[in-house]
């Protein structure tokens, strides 16, 4: 029986939540954004969502292999294939897509070949392929244009995508290619996982690493070629990696990451397409990218544990705690030196010693009911006295531990004075420390 | 800008006649090659550092996001001035540079959160900024001609046409006012069109409109026949000035901060420790990169410009290990690519005419291709640079494919020689000599094919290292000396392998 951890539950909850949100978005957009779901929009939104799923899933692998920008290079590299296919077979979509795939695939091959045989890094070889293939495409394209009176619309469509021209057949094609890609992914899941995370280990175990990597790259090429029509060359890379990056924040498991990336991709693709229908001037591809980026930002900020907001909260709590402890000890020492632990301490003294952090600490101590104001002075409450002597003793014990720990033969623990040493060491060790402390003080 | 051009032209005219300059620059080929070379030189200098810093694709990102800078600066100027600004306004260039820096800042912010890898951060940041630019263009810049095709492709072949005319002699500009005798005054109906009435109808109002009033530059005045003597004009392409300035800036930047750039590229930690502020230098580098990208926009377009940043330095990196040589070589490779790239666009590959090739293809496959090869100049330049990269990749003396193959083959041969001679040395004069050293069966001991063994033995024999005697292979005195030397250099003093002595 599989045990669901808290993280698993969170991920499944998130998947359900996003799906619900996506479903709710449709009536919302109808009611408040005056979007009418005509045939075109239904097709485009469906295509966007499907493409989001395909590219999100395959993009996850590109991210994990640190090949995020491969999408950028390969989408540009498709141009000569498109132009060549146009030159040889005319304006027929299947041939154009085949041409695009062939050219991109050659690009992948070249990137691998040059990176393996020279000291050039992968980013440089990707840049070379991007520029050189695109230039070859432009040369062919300008040649075509000089030959006939084909307009430059072809290039513009290629660069920016043309979401409105997406037809039912295109959507079916995306579904078909995506289905085949997922089938391969499912069959070779274990192998892909291995070559993604530890190619050396995979090679040592007799897997054909190079072949598997090329196969994975080929699947990514397929996703890119499908997406060119909708998102265009430049934005395709964002479509490919943004869902995966967002998904990566929520989980440490590949399976969950991939499913989450699919959901994020579908959400971004679908809602981006719908949002672009709000106003006729809004282009579809860029809207999808903006929605994806918002998802990434939300994930980076909010993902439990990892997210920036949680980090910030944790940092703030630690800082307050530290300030409070410091002030508490200052109060204790001052009062102790003045004869009674009930002695009120002038606020000026505390702030003068501790600076702005002391104000923070005082506020927190007051919230905890450990100090009370006494005019312009502060006095420890009975609980405060207890807490203060506790923390002061803790610090003294740490001092003793640091000085005599070896001598007393105590086990080694990392010094962290925010922690109670009495919890870190055994009762017997603490007793020895306390004995030593009593000897030193008395 | 205009003033600078004039000074430079004055300087130029000490050496050549204005007619010569005009006819030289009027040739699209010359202007295109000059502009391409300027881009290639500045791109190569900066690109070398980007490549070595592992930031090769940053130029790609910047080349896309400068569009956002241009659009935002455009909209701000539109709001402030109330009219569409000139597309070559320096404010737009500044906006583009700011966008370049913004890309880097956004990327680093994403990266520094520790949640996104460097390459992924770049892949997120620039599509977003580009998407925003496209949305802004679609939403706000409606009646303005921000031609996306031109931004993407560039028009280096037309650069010569967009020029400033500098007047050198007979410079008489004419201004015609309505009371000038040369003014042509027409009486026109001012409200006919708006009211939809004929000039003969009642209520039609008339005014005197001057059709040829205005200020005429010397060239225009001559064309309109307003002055008697033809002025001597010199047409100077605007792009050359802009790019020359940017190239000078680049050379100045790299020259001035050469030491700092070198240090922060190869050892950023040391640079920081010595107080060189590598982060600041990095931003400065990005600003210069953005400027070059913007300057190259008109000529080669935003996608192809990255070729000038990445490909020549990559080729040079395969040819040399010295930074100074790499800078020089990459600039040269870029310039050579530009020079031959122009010819490629016009159907000539190096010294080879391509019309024949196309005709051959037509005859073979019946494709009906046009035999007139005429294609994008900037793209052809990039292809030519790529060709040079391929040449460097294959033939580089140190890191090329050919030399690597040759070196590996030599190593294989050397290794085979060594083991065979070692084997003979080990058994020669021993009892087992008659089993181990038989020529015809020697290959079994190595699990080699007989042919390979025959090849190795023939080689060893022809260099007098082994001799054949009664069906056995034995070392010659030279061969023994060779093995001795090998054992002394490769093995420890008492015959143990060095590897065994390692800790």
What are the SSEs and their pairings?
The complex is a heterodimer of chains A (about 450) and B (about 500).
Chain A: H1 6-32, H2 39-64, H3 70-77, H4 79-89, H5 93-117, H6 122-147, H7 153-160, H8 168-187, H9 189-197, H10 199-204, H11 209-248, H12 254-276, H13 284-302, H14 308-337, E1 345-346, H15 347-354, H16 356-367, E2 371-374, E3 377-380, H17 382-404, H18 421-424, H19 427-441
Antiparallel strand pairs in A: 1-3, 2-3
Helix pairs in contact in A: 1-12, 2-8, 2-11, 2-12, 3-5, 3-6, 3-11, 4-5, 4-6, 5-6, 5-11, 7-11, 8-11, 9-11, 11-12, 11-13, 12-13, 14-16, 14-17, 15-16, 17-19
Chain B: H1 2-12, H2 18-26, H3 28-52, H4 58-81, H5 90-112, H6 118-140, H7 148-153, E1 163-169, E2 174-176, E3 185-189, H8 192-195, E4 206-210, E5 214-216, H9 218-223, E6 232-237, H10 238-256, H11 258-266, H12 268-273, H13 278-300, H14 305-317, H15 323-345, E7 348-349, E8 352-353, H16 355-365, H17 377-395, H18 401-427, H19 433-436, H20 442-446, H21 450-462, E9 466-469, E10 472-475, H22 477-490, H23 498-501
Antiparallel strand pairs in B: 1-6, 2-5, 3-4, 7-8, 9-10
Helix pairs in contact in B: 3-10, 3-13, 3-14, 3-15, 4-5, 4-6, 4-13, 5-6, 5-13, 10-13, 14-15, 14-17, 15-17, 18-21, 18-22
